[in-house]
Design brief:
Blueprint: H1 49-58, H2 60-68, H3 77-100, H4 104-107, H5 112-121, H6 131-134, H7 142-148, H8 151-159, H9 166-174, H10 195-210, H11 221-233, H12 239-251
Helix pairs in contact: 3-5, 3-10, 3-12, 5-9, 5-10, 8-9, 10-11, 11-12
Length: 258
């Protein structure tokens, strides 16, 4: 593919030293929640403040996760809305683009609706991650990393009571997993990173590498592809999915790959 291999650039996390009030996860939203002024359609309907509060009330496990990790129950709606408008939408476009560049033998196995919905909702749990961690201008320490890693499980538990199909829910939960099961959260031995999950995972990673964040400048597409190619060599990513990503990058004019 003619990709020049750069020395991998460090991708640090996002983090602060935070002292949490252990009682803050006990926040009660009450029995009455005002309805939204208009009904959203598609996956967007799960992302309003009202909808999220209803999810928290409906599933006690959300509060249990927060309590066990000493995370205060505070909705970070400002950062969440920005995430949806930028990163989530970008991941959705990249995932669709990858699926469209696959050979028919693989593209026919893609659940396009589940993939599209999960791409938009994959970081749902970050609405419960403290702002100081999401926006930290520096590397996360061990505790902050542990908290950040809870976002995929929190997103799954939030959405579990909404009636979303299990394929979409599993994609949200496991979007940081890979074919070698070295990601997070924990998965059983019979876990398989199917084509849908591999597309979502690499779309998320490519978007994260090529966008500006509080702790890093954006990488070029070529730099991002170089880093992702290491996952192919490690057996974490199907090389055909990677080739589809490269082709998408070419057609999207994000990089000239000769």
């Amino acid at each position: 593919m003619g990709i020049e291999i750069f020395r991998p650039l460090g991708i640090s996390g996002i983090t602060p030293n935070i002292n949490f009030n252990p009682n803050r996860y006990q926040t009660n939203f009450g029995n009455y929640l005002a309805e939204d002024t208009f009904e959203k359609s598609g996956p967007e309907k799960y992302t309003s403040e009202t909808a999220i509060k209803k999810m928290i009330i409906a599933n006690p496990k959300v509060k249990n996760i927060l309590k066990n990790s000493n995370i205060p129950l505070v909705l970070n709606m400002d950062d969440f809305k920005e995430l949806l408008a930028n990163h989530a939408t970008d991941v959705q476009n990249i995932a669709i683009g990858i699926s469209e560049n696959l050979p028919f033998s693989l593209s026919s196995k893609v659940n396009k609706k589940a993939l599209k919905d999960a791409a938009y909702l994959h970081d749902m749990g970050k609405v419960l991650i403290p702002k100081e961690i999401l926006n930290k201008n520096g590397k996360l320490d061990a505790k902050e990393t542990e908290i950040m890693h809870k976002h995929s499980e929190l997103g799954y538990e939030l959405l579990k009571t909404t009636g979303l199909d299990q394929t979409t829910l599993n994609l949200v939960r496991n979007h940081h997993q890979n074919a070698k099961k070295t990601g997070y959260p924990w998965v059983s031995n019979d876990f398989t990173a199917d084509i849908n999950l591999q597309i979502l995972s690499v779309a998320d990673k490519y978007s994260a590498l090529t966008e500006k964040r509080a702790y890093k400048d954006p990488m070029s597409a070529k730099q991002a592809l170089t880093i992702i190619y290491a996952d192919v060599k490690d057996g974490k990513l199907n090389p055909i999915v990677f080739k589809a990503l490269v082709n998408f990058a070419k057609s999207n004019q994000k990089v000239a790959v000769s």
